[in-house]
Amino acid sequence: MQLTRSGEYALRGLIFLAKQPADRLALVSEISKVQNIPKTYLAKIFQRLSKVGLLRSIRGLNGGFALARPAQKITMREVIEALEGPILLNRCLLREGECNEEKGCSLHQVLGEAQERLLDIFNRTTMEDLCKPRVQNERKGRR
User: Fold this and answer.
1) Residue 27 and residue 103: Cα distance in Å, rounded?
2) What are the backbone dihedrals phi and psi of residue 5, each rounded to the nearest 5 degrees, phi first?
3) Residues 6+ away with beta carbon under 8 Å from 61
4) Beta bridge partners of 57
5) Architecture of domain 5-87+127-131
6) Which of left, alpha, beta for 36 (phi over 0: left; psi -120 to 50: alpha)?
7) 86 CB-contact burial (10 Å; exposed 0-12 / middle 13-18 / buried 19+)
């Protein structure tokens, strides 16, 4: 699995919005400039995120974008899957019966465990978490 540019830009845009006061609307042009993201690309991403309810969009002179919910209630998984669909390490993990070898395949078991761990991290990491400074190499929940 590789996070696409759209997924990365979406996360960076939402992190910017999460750092703003709750009542402040930000323009795509401002976010684009600060985050170094192409404006038209970010506008398309934000339209999609608005349609799925992660952002609210206000048109007009005093319009802009803001998070639709508090930053601590929006997870990385929601953002990524809103743009890219389900997060899968391999097609055999899509649904039971997708792979003929899944019952006795050690690879299937390892990929399944890896996917569970990845999804756990993405499910518990919120936009609020991503706004906090982190010590390099620190991992949430790492032993």
Assistant:
1) 51
2) -60, -40
3) none
4) 65
5) Orthogonal Bundle (1.10)
6) left
7) exposed
H-assigned helices in the chain? 5-18, 28-35, 39-51, 76-84, 106-124, 127-131
Q: CB 71: neighbour CB atoms within 10 A?
A: 19
Other Cβ atoms closer than 10 A to 82: 19
Token pair 């039971």: residue: 96
- 80 burial class (0-12, 13-18, 19+ CB within 10 angstroms)? buried
| pTM score | 0.82
The residue with greater pLDDT, 18 or 98, is 18
pLDDT tens by residue, 126-141: 999 999 887 654 555 5
Give the residue extent of every domain in the chain.
5-87+127-131
